[in-house]
Design goal:
heterodimer; A: 781 residues; Aldehyde Oxidoreductase, domain 4; seven-stranded mixed beta sheet; six-stranded mixed beta sheet; 25% strand; B: 211 residues; DNA polymerase, domain 1; 2 domains; five-stranded mixed beta sheet; 12% strand; disordered N terminus
Chain lengths: 781, 211
């Protein structure tokens, strides 16, 4: 037999913890008990790379400086829709210090584009047209300014409402398909269907298509909520912009990349330049934030490589802040129509959803599947349309689609609860079948003191307080392409290697924790070398897949390496290695307590310089919902918001957020709290501040910088309390999952519900601004 | 581009090539940005280099950084941030907005926090620069740095050097800061990962230890 049976902890400690028997692969390690009984896992372990960050030693891609390196700068379009008739580079070429100019030309691959001459058609302001490599960034900028681009301008459309009209300027004449960039976790949008700029609809997800009969469902309903919600476009604005340093002076193309996905960048670069994957090496040690937008080599990767090829020198190509806003991704906006029906007792009878959103010149503006799966409802249908506009392309943005979807759904559920005369939490207890969210609601309500909530708009005075709640779900995605090498060196060192990158979430640290726990060592004893595609392939950091995908093979490889080491000790002690264990850095024997050997001493028994074991992610114990890696269970959250609304000025202040989350077995409470804080703050920002402002007359973004693109700074940060609920599902050797995406989903909805509770008038559009509050209150027209 | 006067044919009449420096700071609103946020750098320039003619070619200047005298060859339009990062390989100082709006490039000029992206390297003169690399002394971390580690106050870490510069300056100049003081000290520091709550905690904890 290749399997054995083991009993695993199952359920939620303090609520319904029990055991479940699982049949697991024979080579995988014995079950871990719940976190209480572990030494390192689940604890507040400090980040292993924190020291480098606080002393300024951490090297990011933008910090790379290589001998002979040149600095590159993009030439970008300054019109939103045009055919390029000519590009005059003569002046730029002769500027002292300029080494190469590379213009992006049409290729046979690009469908529609190659009908129209030498250069691709310009579709948005900020589209890359070419690049310059020079001895300094200043010279490169000077040279860009000397290039003259002649355009034959075409009519264009910037805003979604106009783009949807019949007779609107057409952005793409032909069917288009969504580019895979690793950040889309299993969902693609079909741009080949539809009319004009409106493409789609997408009507199904990996959770299936429409269910039941909506007409019947709404006939059975006693109460119906029917609303349209609007959300804005917002940009990722990671502090480190997109970019690479490419060194192609040897047989191997070396790409230093600020990326969430070293593997995807490697694959793209190999494909574009017709190289075997083994001849491209992508490296990312520290990276300054991505939030979903950094899964691809974009146009900067190929541009830097082309310039490296032309000059024979390493090329530094990092975007500036404006370029980042214009061309490197955003969360598409949405116009969501939602109709929900329920019986008098609250039972949902129908959910109908229809959404339009624009990801500019890209696809992927759906509103996710949260309305499909968060609550049990027999009758459901969705139609999600992409609207093409002459604006920068959208990209995956922390829980793509679901953040928009939650803003609509969770407000509609709140409104339904009120119509049914039920407390919003009590109502969710009734319609939400998730056991973990039940616990989250209970524990969160206590921490937040939900009982102080007053009827909507009942507060006296100018500043009114409001309390609200929002919920989320996020699938447990697993990438089977997740491998780790664990080495035990004969000097006592332990090393982990994988191409998986740490984007600031703490992946390096949890890997060290898992290996240290399994080896009975301390975190400081483990060296983590990741973010290098010459190492075993790891997952991209998107969809909250990393923890659930990479920690089980990390543990499994460690277990294999440990067994090999213990066999050597067993031989010396003339015993059976199954009797041996490692604890506190000492190898011991269950049979003979007098036998002791330090870990480092044991490594001296090795006849080779290292023990090296590689493990890859195996199927979940008990299998997947979808064979490609959709696991059972979900990552659910309940977030509570307390706001103050000044009814004279319209200003909204978020006073407090209580965020209660689950992610299977929590690995590092401190890092989880940090990530939840981040999701919450970005949610506050989405609800109240951020907005990409476009000039519809020129197609230019009006706030493509930091000073005008509104985000919260220290003064706007609410008090945040987090709770992580342990939930054991017995699905892998670590049973752990990530938290990045879930942390961001429910916040805006919770805030909107709290604003309603404060002022008694509901806002269906974000960002909620002083102007929109005063308008809702009828104080301005 | 509107900097038509820039170039070899129009030698600046005095001091540094300001227009080129302005271009680096962003085009359309450069004037107002510089006037409102770069008063300090202008003040130094007027005192130190009025009447001398530099640029546009690179020339060698000296600068005291983290207690050491450094020699570097830079053009007058080179910002202090670029001088540190590109010429002295002190890449702990980060450039995020390049227009004085995010404080990622915060360094000390004679002990006072300034935005290194908003200041010409030529304006430093004989003032002493302290960067994030100069905060730990003889391998010993400043209490703020130690507290940032203990309270998980960095995530991606890109804002961290600037945050630490702001927070160290606070605890060195305020023996008993409260939460509002910390928020005020970091009100210009942009973080996108959401480290603020832990930055506040870390700085308050460090302040207690600093007394």
């Amino acid at each position: 037999m290749d399997t054995r049976k083991e009993k695993f902890p199952y359920g939620i400690p303090g609520h319904n913890l029990s055991e479940i028997e699982r049949e697991i692969p024979i080579e995988e390690p014995p079950v871990w008990p719940i976190n209480d009984k572990l030494k390192i896992i689940g604890k507040r372990v400090t980040r292993i790379d924190a020291l480098d960050k606080v002393i300024g030693k951490a090297k990011y891609t933008s910090d790379i400086k290589l001998p002979g390196m040149l600095y590159a700068k993009f030439l970008r379009s300054n019109v939103p829709h045009a055919v390029i008739t000519s590009i005059d580079i003569s002046k730029a070429k002769s500027l002292t210090g300029v080494h190469a100019i590379h213009l992006i030309e049409n290729t046979q691959k690009e469908g529609e584009e190659n009908k129209n001459g030498k250069y691709p058609i310009v579709k948005y302001v900020g589209q890359p047209l070419g690049g310059i490599a020079a001895e300094s960034l200043e010279i490169a900028k000077d040279a860009i300014a000397l290039i003259k681009v002649n355009y034959e301008k075409k009519s264009f459309v910037i805003d979604i409402d106009t783009a949807m009209e019949i007779g609107a300027p057409i952005v793409f004449d032909e069917p288009i398909t969504q580019q895979q960039d690793g950040g889309d976790v299993g969902e693609t949008h079909d741009g080949s269907k539809g009319k004009g700029n409106v493409r789609g609809p997408s009507t199904s997800s990996f959770f299936g298509g429409p269910r039941g009969d909506l007409v019947k469902g709404f006939e059975e309903a006693d109460v119906v909520v029917e609303r349209t919600y609007r959300t804005q476009v917002h940009t990722h604005m990671p502090l480190e912009t997109h970019g690479v340093v490419v060194d192609w002076n040897s047989d191997v193309m070396m790409v230093y990349a600020s990326t969430q996905n070293t593997n995807a960048v490697r694959n793209e670069m190999a494909s574009i330049f017709n190289l075997p994957k083994s001849k491209v090496r992508v490296f990312c040690d520290f990276m300054g934030g991505g939030f979903g937008a950094k899964h691809s080599s974009g146009s900067f990767g190929p541009m830097a490589a082309n310039l490296a090829k032309k000059t024979g020198r390493p090329i530094w190509l990092m975007l500036d802040r404006q370029e980042e806003h214009l061309s490197e991704g955003n969360r598409p906006n949405s116009i969501q129509y939602l109709k929900i029906g329920a019986k008098k007792n609250g039972t949902l009878t129908g959910i109908q959803q229809r959404s339009h959103g624009t990801a500019g010149v890209a696809l992927g503006a759906g509103v996710g599947r949260i309305a499909q799966i968060l609550y049990t409802c027999p009758n459901f249908a969705t139609e999600q349309y992409d609207v093409l506009t002459n604006a920068g392309p959208g990209a995956a943005w922390r829980a793509p689609g679901n953040v928009q979807g939650a803003f609509g759904l969770e407000q509609a559920i709140d409104e339904l609860a009120e119509k049914l005369n039920m407390d919003p939490l009590t109502y969710r207890d009734k319609i939400d079948k998730s056991e973990v969210r039940k616990v989250e609601r209970r524990r969160g309500a206590k921490l937040f003191d939900w009982s102080r909530r007053q009827p909507a708009g009942s507060g006296k005075g100018v500043v009114k307080k409001g309390l609200g709640v929002g919920q989320s779900t996020w699938p447990r995605f697993v990438t089977l392409d997740s491998s780790v090498e664990v080495k035990i060196h004969n000097d006592g060192g332990v090393e982990i290697r994988s191409s998986v990158q740490d984007i600031g979430t703490g992946t390096k640290t949890i890997l060290a924790q898992v290996v240290a726990e399994e080896l009975g060592l301390e975190v400081k004893d483990i060296t983590v070398n990741i973010g290098d595609t010459f190492f075993p392939v790891g997952p991209g950091s998107g969809g909250s897949v990393v923890t659930g995908s990479i920690t089980p093979p990390a543990r499994n490889a460690t277990y294999e390496a440990k067994k090999a080491l213990l066999k050597l000790v067993a031989k010396k002690w003339e015993t059976d290695s199954s009797e041996l264990f490692i604890e506190n850095g000492q190898i011991g024997s269950k049979k003979d307590a007098s036998l002791k050997m330090p870990f480092k001493g044991a490594t001296k028994l090795m006849r080779t310089s290292q023990i090296s074991k590689i493990a890859s992610r195996s199927d979940d114990y008990g299998g997947f919902q979808q064979p490609w890696g959709l696991a059972y269970g979900d990552l659910g959250s309940v977030q509570f918001a307390e706001v103050s609304v000044n009814t004279d000025t319209g200003f909204v202040k978020v006073d407090k957020i209580v965020a209660v989350h689950s992610c299977g077995r929590p690995l590092n409470i401190g890092q989880l709290e940090s990530q939840i804080n981040g999701g919450v703050i970005q949610g506050v920002s989405y609800a109240l501040y951020e907005n990409r402002v476009m000039d519809n007359g020129t197609g230019h973004m009006m706030n493509a910088n930091v000073d005008q693109y509104k985000v919260p700074f220290s003064m706007e940060i609410p008090e945040i309390e987090t709770l992580v609920v342990e939930e054991y599902s017995a699905l892998s050797s670590t049973d752990a999952y990530g938290i990045g995406e879930p942390a961001n989903i429910a916040t805006a909805a919770a805030i909107a519900n709290a604003v309603y509770n404060a002022i008694g008038v509901r806002l269906y559009e974000i960002p909620i601004t002083p102007a929109s509050i005063l308008k809702a209150l009828g104080k301005v027209s | 581009m509107e900097d038509k006067n820039q170039g070899s044919e129009s030698k600046p009449t005095k001091a540094i090539t300001r227009r080129s420096f302005i271009r680096g700071a962003g085009l359309s609103t450069a004037g107002s940005v510089l006037l409102t946020t770069n008063a300090l750098a202008f003040a130094h320039k007027e005192q130190l280099v009025t009447g001398e003619e530099y640029g546009p070619e690179a020339m060698t200047i000296k600068m005291k950084v983290n207690g050491m005298m450094k020699s570097l060859s830079v053009e007058p339009r080179t910002t202090l941030a670029s001088a540190l990062r590109d010429h002295l390989e002190l890449t702990g100082t980060k450039v995020v907005c390049d227009r004085g709006s995010c404080s990622a490039c915060t360094v000390y000029l004679d002990g006072k926090p300034v935005n290194a992206c908003m200041m010409s390297a030529f304006d430093v003169g004989d003032k002493e620069i302290t960067t994030i690399e100069g905060i730990a002394q003889n391998g010993e971390l400043h209490p703020v740095q130690q507290a940032f580690i203990e309270h998980d106050a960095s995530q991606c870490g890109y804002c961290t050097p600037g945050m630490i510069m702001s927070c160290v300056h606070l605890v060195e100049n305020n023996t008993d800061p409260n939460l509002e003081d910390v928020k005020n000290a970091t009100r210009g520091n942009l973080c996108r990962c959401g480290t603020y709550p832990n930055v506040f905690k870390a700085t308050l904890a460090a302040a207690k230890k600093t007394i």
